[in-house]
Every structure is written in C-alpha cells, then in structure tokens.
C-alpha cells in the first residue's frame, strides 16, 4: 500500500520543482494528462493533497514539501546504488575525490603527494566541481569522498573528518581603495556602494537578497572581480585561483572555515577508509607537538 515507485517519485519531483504540470510534462517527455493522473493516484494512495492547483500552476502543500525532500533523497539513493554497483564491477575503477575547483589547493596537493608516495594507497581520480555540487555527487554515487567546507557546504548525513581551519579574505579589484588596506572587517566589505558583494546560491539553490551579481562559477566570479563589478569573502586557501588583477586582504572578524573530508556513512570501502586515514594523517602532521 505504501510502496512508492521511482517513476512516480520522478514525476512528483518534476512537478514540485516546476510548479506547473505542463512544464513538468515537457521536462519528462510525456503528455500532461497521464502526468496529472499519476499525481492524483499518488495523492490517493498516500491519503494527502500534495499540491494546491489553480489556473496559473501549482503550489506545494506542507505534505508535498515533506515528500519533496524524501523523494529527492530516495532518488539519489537509487542513482547511487546504480553508480556504485557499476563502478564496483569495473576492474579499472579509481576512487573519486570531488572538490570545488580552486578550493583547498595546497591541502589537495599534499594529499595527492602523500598518496603517490604510498604503494598501498588507493588510486584516486580528482573530480573538480562548482560551488555546492559535492554533496549531490556524493549522494548519487558519482564520487566516493569529498573535500568540503563548514559552515558553507551541505554536510547533512555524511561522516566527516576535520582537516584544516583557516580564516577568510576579501578578494578585491586591485585598483579599489579597500585593496590598499592591511586588514578589513565584515562591516568594511558590506554595502560598499561601488562594489557590492557577490551572491552565491544557498544550499536550497536560492540567492540572498542584495545588489551584488548572482554568481555560479569560479571563472565567472574571477572576471567580475577583475572588472571591478563585485567583491567576495572566501577562505584564505581559495586565493590559489587569484588573478593578477585581484588583491586579497584578510577579514579579521569573519568566521573561521573548516575543511573536512566527507564520505557516505553507508560506505564500507577499504579504499575510502585508506583515503580518510591519509587525509587525517596530514592534519596530524601539521599539528604542533605537545609541550613538555
């Protein structure tokens, strides 16, 4: 009675994300009437209304918003099972470590060097992604582990090991007056009339309010800073992709950022365990020796 099929969950998620049955049908490549019937059958089986409908489209009810989160997680789990099973059967497979392009560059290089020097270490492929994509790639099985950043990235449901804590910097156009300062505060970089803060997407994909440009990729952001259109506050290690037209200034009261290695809690892979041990070993090597 309560069994849910992946097909009807995909149908439901498409409507929930489009909030319009006709657009969802186009996205799914099916006609609208069978889609509408499938959603009505799903509501009847669950005994709840998932959408409030009118001529303009549809809106999620509270029950629908709950199912949306659960359906996404369930579809991710199904996709992950398929990805991991296929990869497990590939004799040439390598462990996939995903990280944001340009982030934690020095730490990543040290980790890869440590793995290369250990004949027992797993072979690792590095998958570079854009902001906020690591969690999805871990959940759907396309990656085995990830370098992520607390408090910015979505770590919900993952096992993690803290690796590195650092401060943040403001990345500014070289010709801007703030670029000549030795240090800045968050108050200094907020509401700069001629240089609004760039706006990254939140974990839910929405953007905060503000005059700054919406940014999607590191390369887009780098060029906007160089053109004098925006500034941003980022972890200090992310300045690895800094352009000559950029200047980095410490933001002394910005919250610290912790780089972690994350992996799915269901993983029983000895290769993942070996990768995590290698990463944790780098952290321990960098820690000061205890005082006598």
Structure described in brief:
The protein is 38% helix and 20% strand. With 292 residues, the protein is an alpha+beta fold.
The largest β sheet comes out as:
5 strands, mixed
Mean pLDDT: 88
Regarding quaternary structure, what we see is: single chain
As for the CATH topology of the largest domain, it is D-Maltodextrin-Binding Protein, domain 2
CATH A-level architecture of the largest domain? 3-Layer(aba) Sandwich
Beta-strand percentage range: 15-25%
**Derived structural class:** alpha+beta
Keywords: DNA-binding, Transcription, Transcription regulation
Family: Belongs to the LysR transcriptional regulatory family.
Protein name: LysR family transcriptional regulator
Pfam family, one: HTH_1
How is this fold's topology laid out?
Elements lengths: L5 H13 L2 H8 L3 H15 L4 E4 L2 E4 L1 H27 L6 E6 L4 H12 L7 E6 L4 H6 L5 E6 L8 E8 L1 E6 L12 H4 L28 H9 L5 E4 L10 E6 L5 E7 L6 H17 L6
Explain this structure.
By secondary structure, this protein is an alpha+beta fold. It has 3 domains: about 80 residues, Orthogonal Bundle (Arc Repressor Mutant, subunit A); about 100 residues, Periplasmic binding protein-like II (D-Maltodextrin-Binding Protein, domain 2, 3-Layer(aba) Sandwich); about 80 residues, D-Maltodextrin-Binding Protein, domain 2 (3-Layer(aba) Sandwich). It is built from 9 helices and 10 strands. Helix 1 crosses helix 2, helix 1 crosses helix 4 and helix 5 crosses helix 9. The longest helix is centred in the N-terminal third of the chain and has 27 residues. The radius of gyration is 23 Å and the shape is flat.
């Amino acid at each position: 009675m309560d069994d849910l099929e992946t097909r009807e969950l995909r149908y439901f998620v498409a409507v929930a994300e489009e909030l319009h049955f006709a657009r969802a049908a186009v996205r799914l490549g099916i006609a609208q009437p069978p889609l509408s019937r499938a959603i009505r059958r799903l509501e009847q089986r669950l005994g709840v209304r998932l959408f409030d409908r009118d001529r303009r489209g549809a809106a999620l009810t509270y029950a629908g918003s709950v199912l949306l989160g659960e359906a996404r997680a369930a579809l991710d789990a199904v996709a992950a099972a398929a990805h991991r099973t296929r990869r497990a059967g590939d004799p040439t497979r390598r462990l996939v470590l995903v990280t944001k392009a340009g982030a934690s560059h020095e730490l990543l290089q040290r980790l890869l060097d440590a793995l290369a020097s250990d004949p027992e270490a797993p072979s690792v492929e590095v998958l570079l992604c854009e902001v906020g994509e690591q969690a999805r790639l871990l959940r759907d099985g396309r990656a085995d582990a990830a370098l992520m950043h607390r408090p910015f990235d979505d770590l919900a449901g993952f096992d993690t090991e803290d690796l590195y804590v650092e401060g943040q910097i403001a990345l500014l156009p070289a010709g801007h007056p703030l670029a000549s300062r030795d240090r800045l505060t968050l108050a200094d970089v907020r509401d700069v009339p001629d240089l609004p803060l760039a706006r990254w997407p939140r974990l839910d994909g929405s953007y905060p309010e503000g005059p700054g440009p919406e940014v999607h990729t590191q390369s887009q952001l780098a060029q906007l800073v160089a053109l004098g259109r925006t500034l941003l506050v980022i972890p200090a290690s992310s300045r690895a992709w800094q352009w000559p037209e950029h200047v980095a200034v410490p933001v002394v009261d910005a919250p610290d950022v912790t780089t972690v290695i994350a992996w799915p809690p269901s993983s029983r892979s000895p290769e993942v365990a070996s990768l995590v041990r290698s990463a944790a070993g780098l952290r321990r090597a960098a820690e000061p020796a205890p005082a006598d």
